[in-house]
Amino acid sequence: MSLICGVDEAGAGPLAGNVFAAAVILDPARPIAGLADSKTLSEKKRDLLAVQIKQHSLAWVIAVASVEEIDHLNILQASLLAMQRAVQALSIEPQLVLVDGLYTPQISYAAQAIIKGDSKIPAISAASILAKTARDAEMYQLDKLYPQYGFARHKGYPTAMHMQRLLLHGVSPVHRKSYAPVKKLLECCVVDGGL
Fold first, then answer.
1. Which candidate, 27, 20, 21, 25, places its Cα nearest to that of 6?
2. In terms of Cα–Cα distance, which of 105, 113, 82, 99 is closest to 17?
3. SS3 65
4. What is the spatial distance between Cα 174 and Cα 40, in angstroms, rounded to a whole number?
5. pLDDT tens, position by position, 132-179
6. Cut 0.85: pTM above it
7. Domains and CATH numbers, the chain
8. 97, β-bridge pairs
9. How many whole angstroms from its chain centre is CA 3?
């Protein structure tokens, strides 16, 4: 039996919060119906599938790269770092690691990047679901800490509502300061503050 590990990340686009990655080795003897790219599934369906993935997989890990790491490295490198952490923490060694996207993290296993892999490879679909549900859970937590930004509604994406709240309340400790809209706001406020 060849042990294939699927890897995907969630949260590259938002202006706030950590970036999440998951690594999943599915059990061929316990297939999970309904696996798909997490972005095409409802939140309720993702939550149900996440429970099944955790129960039926041979191994799974969810890892993060922090807001500080995103700002320090850039989002691509931080995403790859989260992926690397997820794969390295697996309890079983995979024979092949399949990663959604264009790049593979630095790992000691054979790895291949697959564009739109989250809609083609069940193990990557599973990883995308775990990464997305974990990231959404974090955004609900951040919403409780910083209710003024509405994180539970927009999940940190640069929606009109989020941009309005950013202008109104300023930049929080969980916003990514290297991202253009946040950076611009910080620069504008520093200049205005100096007048």
1. 25
2. 82
3. strand
4. 27
5. 999 999 999 999 999 999 999 999 999 999 999 999 999 999 999 999
6. yes
7. 4-144 (3.30.420.10), 147-194 (no CATH)
8. 5, 111
9. 23
